[in-house]
What does this fold into?
Amino acid sequence: MRRAQELLFPEEPHKVEPKQTLDTGTPPVRSISAPDDLRHWLAKGWNDLRSAPLALVHGLFVAAVGLLILAYSWTQPVASVIFISGFLLVGPILAVGVNEMARRLEQGRAGSVGSGLGAIRDLGGSLWIYAAVLIILFALWASVVWRWIGVLTLGDLGAPATMGEVFGVMLASPQGVVSLLGVIAAGIVFALAVFAISLVTLPAMLDRKKGFVDAAAVSLKAFKTNPGPLLVWGLTITALFAISVATAFIALIVIFPWLGFAMWHGYRSLVGSGDRPREPKPHPTHG
It folds into this structure.
């Protein structure tokens, strides 16, 4: 009872801390413009990739995962839609190594594959929480797609051989058109949700030594401050991913680390110093 009275009627009101909000509990976020700032991020990301070509190893690994998904679902077009689009949804978590390499390059240190992978250990549980959130969103996305396409539309078709058959069935009846619109709407919702919470989450976790919730709040604030330019950025990422899919993920070997480096510079452009801890200067004899 006494504790409740102290909360409701504090003896020293001026010492009561204000409630934390998305604006007060996060560092300042700058406004950006499209396409100028986005081109700047991509140009700096490309320069980083040229400076640290070992980042292509990360791209090779991610491309191999994508190729395995494509091979597994080649004869199952509905599964192919689910897994390839889901690959894009959970893709941000795979960029942790590239982001760590970008951070080290910024500090004038050597960016190696080992140091990039070491970030997984350094982030610890926060990274796994982030991964779990993305996996849950992917599972929800997969269930929605299967329900809308597999259950509502393809009950009489059996196992369609191509995506052409899938779309042919969907466009052949009002029910199919509704299914197609439902899939598109669900895709937009899930893509926006993942994009908003993943925009600068990994860079913020690495740079500010914050947990997933605090880093995701920075991403949400950045998206809230710059919805138009960042939607253009999201469309740019989607277009480059589409090019990767069209090349059987071969182009992803280059595109993935390039975008990872670019997003680090996007983070620096968007987010002010705020509560960022100071990095100790590396000893000249250390990498």
In short: The two ends are 57 Å apart (CA to CA). The chain has 13 helices and no strands. Residues 35-270 form one domain. The first helix runs from residue 2 to 8.
